[in-house]
Amino acid sequence: MSELSKLNLPVIQSKKSVVKHQTGAKKIAAIDLSKNTAVHKILNTKDSIQHELIDKNRGLDLMLVGDLTASMTEYHVLLKRKFKELCIKLFSLIKNLRVGIIFYLDYDRHLPYVTSICQPTSDVERIYSFIETTPVDNFGNSTFEEAVETALNDLLHNIQWKELHTRSVVLFGDARPHNCHECPEGYDFWGITKDLYSFSTTINSVYCGKYFEQSMQDLYSIEIGDFRKRIENLNHDAFFSWIANVTGGMALAIKDIDDLIDIIITSAAKDAGKLDDLEMTVKNEPKKLNLVKLAKKAELRKLSTGNRKLIEGK
Predict the structure, then answer these.
(1) What integer is the mean pLDDT of 127-132?
(2) How many whole angstroms separate alpha carbon 267 and alpha carbon 260?
């Protein structure tokens, strides 16, 4: 008898047939792999390493999408003045953070661009240089609407999102998008927003126009993910309320230009799951603490819906 034939090893041929052991050979006790044995732990080591690697590579891609038409030039000045300070706070708060920017104008021929993109990156100097060198519109555009729909299309098709990162957007401006038939490119902001939502993109909005005292979050009430009814011709403020509410984001209106920085930080902390950490750092600053409170309310609304279901019409 060969040395190999002395080993009592079953050969599995199918679910119903196992080659019989030789007569007289010692039997080996069956191992229950469902129990927490050393073998079970070894077999599951691969999965645990995979989960560890996935967790290690999770993070946040934060896209700032901003209107740089003539009425918004002060916000461009603000970003240039406070962007590095903003980044110090964001990168110390959120692990594996990348920040990108889309600036948008409109379609008039005299304008230098329709949209201008800085891809998500952790290189603060690169982003700051983009802010510094991107021109603003000093002459105004010819319509009441602006190229928000092209910026949304860029978010959907032209941004290099990281696969394991949460997608967070802060949209700030003072005008609604063009309706599909009025957009020279034929972009449909409603359909694009629906597609962004289906890719788990949360859009937080900041309305920078003239605003009356009413909660932006409550201005346009709609269930998260509800795309049963096509939306067109909304008022400017109602659009910013709608796009945040339908994607599960936070909607706010600017009262003081400098508030934009704190809104960006709070929105990012919300989408990164860091609101409690942020709250600890601002507990003695009532204005910032109120922003955290509003963000928690928006997040609770999002969590109460469970999974991100997409509600469509028949």
Answers:
(1) 96
(2) 10
